């Protein structure tokens, strides 16, 4: 029974990881497509660049959330050792740092700051 649950958890982790990768890829393609269309309409390059970066950042943030979820599922349900927990902690810290820095890059403020400031 434990092997069955481990197999299901590993499969779920792979599916969620694929969703994360797909999310990043789809947002990147959409952002590029949107930028090209706006370039053809001769809109402001600064506005196009800013929106392209924001769309890419949003896609990366959302994709990172899925990737973190898949890492947690895999580590906890499939390969639970002190070494894998340590690696998971480092990966989550790095991805969390990336999420925070992307948030600051896109909006100019930390995620916990009031949006009206």
TrEMBL record:
<feature type="transmembrane region" description="Helical">
    <location>
        <begin position="55"/>
        <end position="78"/>
    </location>
</feature>
<keyword id="KW-0812">Transmembrane</keyword>
<dbReference type="InterPro" id="IPR012427">
    <property type="entry name" value="DUF1622"/>
</dbReference>
<protein>
    <submittedName>
        <fullName>Putative membrane protein</fullName>
    </submittedName>
</protein>
<keyword id="KW-0472">Membrane</keyword>
<dbReference type="Pfam" id="PF07784">
    <property type="entry name" value="DUF1622"/>
</dbReference>
<feature type="transmembrane region" description="Helical">
    <location>
        <begin position="84"/>
        <end position="102"/>
    </location>
</feature>
<keyword id="KW-1133">Transmembrane helix</keyword>
<feature type="transmembrane region" description="Helical">
    <location>
        <begin position="6"/>
        <end position="34"/>
    </location>
</feature>
